């Protein structure tokens, strides 16, 4: 299968995706609805942290099982209308930034040389995707860890060259390249390499490596709500943006702003969100505006929730996953399904002690999707106790809540968690303040 582009549309083997399908009276031909599945080839080479990702039934981590279960789940996603997934050669943040400086998950060594076992797992995913008629967005590096894994700028260039040669040897033409996740450069221990340089390098090398003028499609992404400058907008084959923390109206504003840019207007190209959040109400907005939307479900490493924190259950097995895939199936079949607001996924509180508290209470709301929520309001015994603006959404802020003015005994902690679409989840728990 060959992925191509014509104007703002993606083509599979020369024909627009979702051919002949309309949504709310507008064509969705050429869109690339996708899901962020970056841990499909995940492994942790460090014995000290490998146990963090253990499967609950075996007590050990198994990268081969992870990839096998991913490949087994792919047909179910395709049947629901999903035609692309995003992978990353350095995975993605399991449990956000908690373990960034500990685990070791990379398809390359510090020189940029590819690791055979890792690439063998990637090959299994790409083979199945080709069979199913699915594209794969392959990210080269993940922000927050790229400088730990790459020794110098030449290593980043070598990584790009090696990936192109590896894909060309397999004749993979259903792959799109994301230079860096949420960055316009690759960071190494010896300095940065700009994405614009690497995009040009990959196109030139792929034309030579494939031997018939075929060039891999390239882009790079920014953080939630971030907008590319003119130079990057011009250099990309497709515009890659993220909608983390941005609701339906925010997606609409981003799309309108991209299309209003004179650089884009002079040479229109596909607009792709390949990372947002679990609030699928953004999907129909993007479909209506002819932009591709990507589902992102962090999870908590429970082998149940989410698609990013290992061990991952790759099935469509939770309400947020079913909500997205059911909506996707309806839209890609030409229907207009109802989209009720989705309340945030909150699992109580992390760090709430069983023993009496002295000094500061360091509890935080246990929210699955930090990017799909608005600031969290906390209350103790009904009185406002502060606002959590960012992960880990701690009561009282980063320093915690000082309990010295509370009477000894039991108290009620309540968190009110609004989603980007306006739905709200409220959770409560009891804690005890120690006597002076």
Walk me through the structure.
The protein is an alpha/beta fold. It folds into 2 domains: 3-332, TIM Barrel, CATH 3.20.20; 346-433, Immunoglobulins (Immunoglobulin-like, Sandwich), CATH 2.60.40.10. The chain contains 11 helices and 23 strands. The strands form 8 sheets. It has a 6-stranded parallel β-sheet with strand order 12-9-8-7-6-15, with helices on one face. Strand 10 and strand 11 (191-194) form a beta hairpin. The longest helix has 18 residues, at 153-170. The radius of gyration is 22 Å and the shape is globular.
CA(first)-CA(last) distance? 70 Å
CATH architectural label of the largest domain: Alpha-Beta Barrel
How would you classify the helix and strand content by structural class? alpha/beta
**Widest beta sheet: strand line-up:** 12-9-8-7-6-15
Rg computed from alpha carbons, rounded to a whole number of angstroms:
22 Å
Per DSSP E runs of 2 or more residues, the count of β-strands stands at 23
- Major sheet: size, sense and barrel closure? 6 strands, parallel
The portion of residues assigned to helices is 25-40%
Per CATH, what is the topology of the largest domain? TIM Barrel
Q: What name goes with the CATH superfamily of the largest domain?
A: Glycosidases
CATH class of the largest domain: Alpha Beta
- Our estimate of the beta-strand percent is 15-25%
In DSSP terms, counting alpha (H) and pi (I) runs of 4 or more, how many helices? 11
